């Protein structure tokens, strides 16, 4: 939530910051702003709406300085107004600041600052940080510990701030210097040639440099065009570790596609190939993972797995639960990370924890990880963004390797989580009761996934026509059984988040215990009906819907035959192994949601009220 960019170097800062903000817009798009230090003052441009609006605004301000900060906002405290947009400038005019996060004790700090004569011009929590830094900066002598006065005033401020923050600050009398600090919100430093950047995400940096430093919680960095000095909140020094980003700028560009969501849906065959590359054992009967940091012996002692995640990632955990229980016969529990962190669940002694998170920054998932670690459990992470906070705090894990996912609605990250979940189930199963031949059968099935996904994607024109037919409905049900129940949940989530149609996912047989009351000619049901042992039961559920005049969209495997006239629309997917079925079955519902949203004229990549990585509670 919220994207932030800072630049200090030789180039004009504003165009570079705006380019970075455009890449971070998926993190929030309520308003955007930029501040540049030039001619002895902060030149500030802010505007509600998209970064494109801001671009027009900056033209009026003749921003030519080479030192600046910018922000794209997902509103928390205070409405969507120009005044609440960042950057904020302290009431004495000395400090400018951008912030991603929430300051929980802002009311208390504000009262203190009002008493000291500082004034406020927005309703945000952020403005207290800005004024408190200005207060300390005004009082601070040259710091006794050798730190600059600037860093020390930020440090003093943050010692009083409760909540989460990623901040970047400029001081009016210090051209060429930025201070940045984080707790709970991601920040990455880019070390370029005579220029230094800071941003919420590498996509805002890679066009300038591939040398990055992942700032950790509790760290403060003092940046100039050629230096980067990192210390901690408690004044400790930190060794700067420079990493190389492997993404290229092309990975986060739209190319010929209309939306990132479309691009990412069609990228899935390649993404899945990347996610499984090098991850099968030479004998072809199991998976292997480099970074789990846990021995097979330790794995064998586990008698319960616990998975925590949010949203789409939780749906991937639920499919993984099904497969681990099938292949390894070990109980698995899945929980919303946001609930787990507070509910103080009784846990089994030999539990092993997994968290799943595309971004690796979701605050609830991070808190669940920390809670499990606090209780003494090992926690492994399935995560896409290399170097994310979750990846760094976990004891080990598996990277998804699908490249940047920009569309707010998760697609390729989801199917790669399903794939990795299936590989994990195979890996654990082969340590228990799965035979060599069962293992090789699953490995062969998994290797065939990209081709099966290609075949499912070939249905796109047919699905587009179905989307046209149903685009005006106000409610839709998604119904599936076993490992396709989580895909029904995911289908409903995809549809509601990008098209604003009310949608619900249920186990197909559960439908008659309540949701059937919604059925009418205006409420279509999407059924998953693969040709397996429950096919006839799912057909019976369809009959119950049909008897009540509910339209049916049936997603069936190509070897299944439905009674004539039962479904209004049929989407065929290839017949596949149960380990692969949830992945292949996801494709039609991704496409259906996408085309419905486009048909309704929705802003697919930037759905209202949402942001891609949820770094506030
Ligand atoms: C929905 C979606 C969200 C995320 C959720 C967790 O399309 O993307 O539900 O899955 O916010 O995000 P990560 O995986 O980054 O922890």
The CATH topology annotation of the largest domain reads as Glutamine Phosphoribosylpyrophosphate, subunit 1, domain 1
Question: Fraction of residues in helices?
Answer: 25-40%
What is the number of domains? 3
The largest sheet, given as strand count, sense and whether it forms a barrel, is: 8 strands, antiparallel
Instruction: For the largest sheet, list the strands in their spatial order.
Output: 3-2-4-1-10-9-11-14
Number of helices: 19
Ligand inventory: fructose -6-phosphate
Low-confidence stretches: none
Tell me the number of strands: 24
Fraction in beta strands? 15-25%
How confident overall, as mean pLDDT?
94
Tertiary shape: globular
- This entry's quaternary arrangement is single chain
Radius of gyration: 26 Å
CATH fourth-tier homologous superfamily of the largest domain: Aminohydrolase, N-terminal nucleophile (Ntn) domain
* Structural category: alpha/beta
What is the CATH class of the largest domain?
Answer: Alpha Beta
Distance between the termini: 11 Å
CATH-derived architecture of the largest domain: 4-Layer Sandwich
């Amino acid at each position: 939530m919220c994207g932030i960019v800072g630049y200090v170097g030789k180039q004009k800062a504003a165009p570079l910051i705006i380019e970075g903000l455009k890449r971070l817009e998926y993190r929030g798009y309520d308003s955007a702003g930029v501040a540049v230090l030039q001619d002895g003052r902060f030149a500030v441009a802010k505007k509600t709406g998209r970064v494109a609006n801001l671009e027009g605004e900056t033209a009026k301000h003749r921003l030519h300085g080479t030192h600046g900060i910018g922000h794209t906002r997902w509103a928390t405290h205070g409405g969507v107004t120009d005044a609440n947009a960042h950057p904020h400038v302290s009431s004495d005019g000395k400090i400018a600041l951008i912030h991603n996060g929430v300051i929980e004790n802002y009311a208390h700090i504000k009262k203190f600052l009002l008493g000291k004569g500082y004034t406020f011009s927005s309703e945000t929590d952020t403005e207290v940080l800005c004024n408190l830094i200005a207060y300390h900066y005004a009082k601070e002598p040259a710091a006794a510990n050798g730190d600059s006065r600037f860093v020390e005033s930020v440090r003093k401020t943050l010692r009083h701030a409760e909540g989460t923050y990623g901040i970047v600050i400029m001081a009016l009398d210090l051209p060429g210097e930025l201070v940045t600090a984080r707790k709970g919100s991601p920040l990455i430093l880019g070390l370029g040639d005579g220029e230094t950047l800071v941003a919420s995400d590498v996509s805002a940096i890679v066009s300038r440099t591939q040398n990055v430093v992942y700032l950790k919680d509790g760290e403060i960095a003092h940046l100039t065009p050629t230096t980067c000095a990192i210390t901690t909140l408690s004044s400790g020094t930190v060794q700067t570790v420079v990493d190389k980003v492997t993404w290229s700028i092309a990975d986060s560009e739209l190319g010929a596609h209309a939306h990132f969501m479309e691009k990412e849906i069609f990228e899935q065959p390649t993404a899945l190939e990347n996610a499984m590359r090098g991850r099968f054992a030479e004998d072809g009967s199991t998976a292997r993972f480099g970074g789990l940091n846990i021995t097979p012996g330790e794995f064998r002692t586990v008698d319960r797995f616990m998975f925590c995640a949010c949203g789409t990632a939780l749906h991937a955990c639920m499919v993984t639960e099904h497969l681990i229980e099938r292949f390894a016969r070990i109980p698995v529990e899945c929980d919303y990370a946001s609930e787990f962190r507070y509910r103080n669940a009784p846990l089994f002694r030999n539990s092993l924890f997994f968290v799943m998170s595309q971004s690796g920054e979701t605050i609830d998932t991070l808190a669940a990880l920390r809670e499990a670690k606090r209780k003494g459990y090992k926690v492994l992470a399935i995560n896409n963004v290399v170097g994310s906070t979750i990846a760094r705090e976990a004891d080990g894990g598996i990277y998804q390797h699908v490249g940047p996912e920009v569309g707010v609605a998760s697609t390729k990250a989801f199917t790669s989580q399903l794939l990795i979940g299936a590989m994990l189930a195979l890996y654990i199963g082969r340590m228990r009761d799965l035979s060599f031949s069962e293992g090789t059968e699953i490995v062969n099935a998994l290797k065939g996934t990209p081709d099966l996904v290609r075949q499912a994607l070939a249905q796109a024109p047919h699905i587009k026509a179905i989307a046209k037919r149903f685009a005006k409905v106000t409610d839709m049900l998604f119904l599936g059984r076993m490992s396709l129940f989580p895909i029904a949940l995911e289908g409903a989530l995809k549809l509601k988040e990008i098209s604003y149609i009310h949608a619900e996912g249920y186990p197909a047989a559960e439908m008659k215990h309540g949701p059937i009351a919604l059925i009418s000619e205006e409420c279509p049901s999407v059924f998953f009906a693969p040709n397996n042992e429950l096919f006839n039961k799912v057909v019976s559920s369809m009959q119950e819907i049909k008897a009540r005049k509910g339209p049916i969209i049936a997603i069936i495997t190509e070897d299944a035959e439905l009674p004539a006239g039962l479904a209004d629309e049929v989407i065929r997917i290839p017949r596949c192994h149960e380990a692969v079925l949830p992945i292949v079955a996801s494709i039609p519902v991704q496409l259906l949601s996408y085309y419905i949203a486009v048909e309704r004229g929705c802003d697919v990549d930037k759905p209202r009220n949402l942001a891609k990585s949820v770094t506030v509670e």
